[in-house]
Amino acid sequence: MLERLQHRLGLQTIPGVFFTSAGIAVLFVALAIPYDKAVAASFGELTGWVARNLGWFYILSVSSLLVFLLALAVSRYGRIRLGADDSRPDYSNLTWFTMLFAAGIGTILMFWGVAEPISHFARPPFDGVESGSEQAASSAMTIALYHFGLHTWTIFAMPGLAIGYFAYRHHLPMRISSLFYPILGERTFGPWGWAVDVIAVLGTLFGVATSLGLGTLQLNSGLNYLFGVPASGLVQVLLIAVIASIAATSVALGLDKGVRRLSQLNILLALGLLLFVFVVGPTVFIAEGMVQSVGDYFDALPWLAFWTETFRESDWQRNWTLFYWAWTISWAPYVGIFIARISRGRTIREFVAGVLFAPTAFTLVWFGIFGLSAIHVEVSGQIPLAEQVRTDPSVAIFAFLEAFPLAETASALSVVIIVIFFTTSSDSASLVIDMLTRRDDQPSLVRQRIFWAATQGVIAATLLLAGGLEALQNVITSLGLPFCILLVFMAVSLYRALHADYRGYSVDDLVRGRAFPEVEAGADPKQETEYVPEAIDRD
Predict the structure, then answer these.
(1) Quick one: which H or E segment has residue 455?
(2) Of 69, 270, 362, 470, which sits most exposed with the smallest number of CB within 10 A?
(3) Where are the transmembrane segments (predicted)?
(4) Which of 156-170, 198-212, 260-274, 521-535 has the highest average model confidence (pLDDT)?
């Protein structure tokens, strides 16, 4: 029946994945609009249950995956390429990095670059730390870097590495379900695999919708500051429609013409804003603070990575760390596939080093400049930033820029950067969702990509109208859990495949139990032979 519907609509999809994902998204919107309070309350209760009972699982999983990736990079598997042994990267390091940044957490940095450090500076989460103190400033920077540094990029790197490995080295379809081929075998290409891809699609839809929602709140605040545009639900819905339209145009142009050019433009604009704040702000204070913040971050990382608030009654971790991890995890399918698409030919060691450390270094600089400058503005009494952020986090960067010369120009530039960041996030996600919902041998239809871009916008508008920032946080914290579980199994599957690959066996050998036969006494192990991966022609 679904195949007949697909032919009637002129689509090119895997019907079980496409229509199930689209149906669930439509059902959510249909229920959330008339029953917004009930839906918001239900997700609030679900989020509370997840935080109380499974918050530790989020913390342990992400930190363990970071250790796993670092171990892979320095191990004997680090020399394995994402592709044939003679393959080389498609993009230069600079182009690769700009695409990583713009499609990854550029949107998040614009929203939280000022808001998070100031929030923790005014209300420290650790016992015995006095608000507004030197220790509060140090811990505020450490927490911000913890939330947006190595752990965030671990969540993106794990699926990106696994997808690139299985797609380019073993020629499996570039879908999340392919990562479980060593575990599921041929069932990967049936209902079990479709279920995995549906989870990935829904996670991506709601994760990007959450970002669009946060970005819209911030954009509305910027337009209110610059032009007096009222901050209201109607204006926010209109802004989402405009961003979705721009994203649809970009996604129709494809990866190279649309996403790459927008990414390169936006990184230049973001660097310009960053340099402006550094030069006109407290330059020496920023430089000294960045050096100290790096040391504080790496000093606190071992215990902070496993901190679960066991001995205190607080909702802090639910509202911050768990929300961030769940939000990032929901982005992981889309960002992972996007990173894999632009990373063919790199070794595992190059991939892990690049994806973990290059964006983290930029994050350190970003929070060093914006976060430390914001703390300086607050301490000097120029602007009551903490009070404004407590009232409305979306206004943080615009209130912050009032303390500098050319405030209106800088705020206008920030608005442009925000729009482009959300556009690249939305169009990249639409390209990836389209890949997840069709076979490799089917063409990518523009109308399908536009459909997913529009769906993201509709979900974002629905979540905003259903409860604003709190609704966004509750929905994403709940929906991130299924994919967090998949990330753990993903690591197991990747390790099994790498171990077989190193010994000279294919993933088919692994599935059929032939990968690790006992070696007869005196015989040479098969790992001594050169292995050329076999193509697996399945969709």
Answers:
(1) helix 446-502
(2) 470
(3) 12-35, 55-74, 94-115, 148-168, 189-214, 234-255, 267-287, 322-340, 352-375, 395-422, 450-469, 475-495
(4) 156-170
Q: Angle between the 446-502 and 36-74 helix axes, to the nearest 10 degrees?
A: 40
Q: How far apart, in whole angstroms, are the C-alpha atoms of residue 314 and residue 318?
A: 8
Cβ neighbours for 224, distance < 8 A, ≥ 6 positions apart = 230, 231
Nearest CA to 247 out of 83, 373, 121, 428 is that of 428
For residue 532, pLDDT over 70 is answered with no
pLDDT of residue 513: 62
Give the dihedral sign, CA 324/325/328/329.
negative
How confident is the model at residue 394, as a pLDDT? Answer: 80
Contact present, 490 and 332 (Cβ < 8 Å): no
Provide the residue type at 107 as one letter: T
* Residues 214 and 387: beta-carbon distance below 8 Å: no
* pLDDT tens per residue, range 141-179: 999 999 999 999 999 999 999 999 999 988 888 889 998
User: What is the model's pLDDT at position 144?
Assistant: 94
Asked if 180 contacts 166 with a C-beta cutoff of 8 angstroms, the reply is no
Query: Helices (DSSP H) in 75-122: which residue ranges?
Result: 93-103, 106-122
Q: How far apart are the first and last CA of the chain?
A: 20
- Per the CB < 8 A criterion, the answer to whether 408 and 229 are in contact is no
Please say if the pLDDT value at position 477 is more than 60: yes
- For every residue of 145-187, DSSP letters joined together read HHHHSHHHHHHHHHHHHHHHHHHHHS---SSGGGGGHHHHGGG
Task: Give dist(CA 23, CA 240) in Å, integer.
Answer: 22
Compute and round to an integer the Cα radius of gyration of the chain.
23
pTM: predicted TM-score of the whole model, two decimal places: 0.86
Angle at 297 between CA 292 and CA 299, to 5 degrees: 95
Collect all residues with Cβ–Cβ distance below 8 Å to 362 and sequence separation of at least 6: 101
> What amino acid is encoded at 466 in this protein?
A
C-alpha span between 125 and 314 (Å, rounded): 9
Tell me how crowded residue 185 is: count the other CB atoms within 10 A of its CB.
Answer: 15
- In angstroms, the CA 468 to CA 211 distance is 12
**Residue 465 and residue 32: Cα distance in Å, rounded?**
9
Higher pLDDT, 506 or 381: 381
**Which is nearest to 269 in space by CA: 141, 153, 156, 423?**
423
What the block records as the tokens of 345 is 């030919």
Q: Are 74 and 509 in contact (CB under 8 A)?
A: no
b/e burial code for range 246-264 (CB count within 10 A of at least 16 → b):
bbbebbbeebeebbbebbe
Name the residue among 338, 337, 307, 329 with its Cα closest to residue 485: 329
Helix, strand, coil percentages in the chain from 3-state DSSP, rounded to 5: 80, 0, 20
Whats the size of the chain, residue-wise? 539
